[in-house]
Amino acid sequence: MALRRFTVAGRRARAREEEALVLARVADGDASALTELYERYAGPLSAFLYRLAGDRGTAEEILQDTLLAVWRSAGTYRSRSAVSTWLFGVARRQAHNRLRGVPPPLAAEPPDGADPLPGPEELAVGGERVQAALARLPLAQREVVVLSFLNDLSHREIAEVLEIPVGTVKSRLHHARATLRGCIDERMA
C-alpha cells in the first residue's frame, strides 16, 4: 500500500514537472507548447468559464483571452502552484475583466465537449435545476462552487486560484450551499 502511494505521488510529481516544462516552452515563444496546454485544459477551462459566464460565446471569447494572457505571461509562472491552478487563476481574472458589471447568466445547457459528465451534485439533483440555481449565486460564490464541485479542486487550490484565504473559500462554499439549497427547495415546492 505504501509503495502504491509513493508511485502515485511520483507520477503526479512527474506530471507537474512536465506541465511546468510545457509552460516554460510557452514562455520561450513555442506555439506548439501553447497548443499542448490548450489540448489538455480547453475542456475544463471552457466548462469553468461557461458556468461563470452562462453563455457559450462569451465563455469561448474569455478562453481566447485566457490563452492570449497565458502566451504573454507564461514567464511569470514560478511553480508555487500546479500549472492547472495557475491556468484557472488566469482564466478567472480574464472572466472577471469581461464580466464586470454584467448581470448573472441565465440558466443554459453546458457547451458540447465541455464537462461532458455531470458532477455528483448534478446527478443527485438534476443538471437543469443546478444550473438555474448556480445562475442565481453571486459571482464570488459561483466560482467557488464551480471550482470545488465541478472541477474537483481542493480548498487550498481554490484559494490559490482566487487569491483568497482558505477560510474565505470555506465561508463562500457554506453560503453558496445555503443559497443553492434554498433555490432547489423553491423549485421542488
Describe, in short, the structure shown.
With 189 residues, this protein is an all-alpha fold.
Strand content: under 5%
Could you say what the CATH topology is called?
Answer: Rna Polymerase Sigma Factor, Chain: A
Note the total helix count.
9
| CATH homologous superfamily identity | RNA polymerase sigma factor, region 2, helix turn helix motif
Oligomer, anyone?
single chain
Reading the helices and strands in chain order gives HHHHHHHHH
The count of strands amounts to: 0
> Which secondary-structure class do the elements indicate?
mainly alpha
Helix proportion range: over 70%
Based on CA inertia axes, which overall geometry fits?
globular
The CATH architecture designation is Orthogonal Bundle
Query: What is the C-level CATH assignment?
Result: Mainly Alpha
C-alpha Rg (nearest Å): 17 Å
Mean pLDDT: 81
Biggest sheet record: none
Low-confidence stretches: 107-111, 113-125
GO molecular function: DNA binding; sigma factor activity
Organism: Streptosporangium roseum (strain ATCC 12428 / DSM 43021 / JCM 3005 / KCTC 9067 / NCIMB 10171 / NRRL 2505 / NI 9100)
Protein name: RNA polymerase sigma factor
Keywords: DNA-binding, Sigma factor, Transcription, Transcription regulation
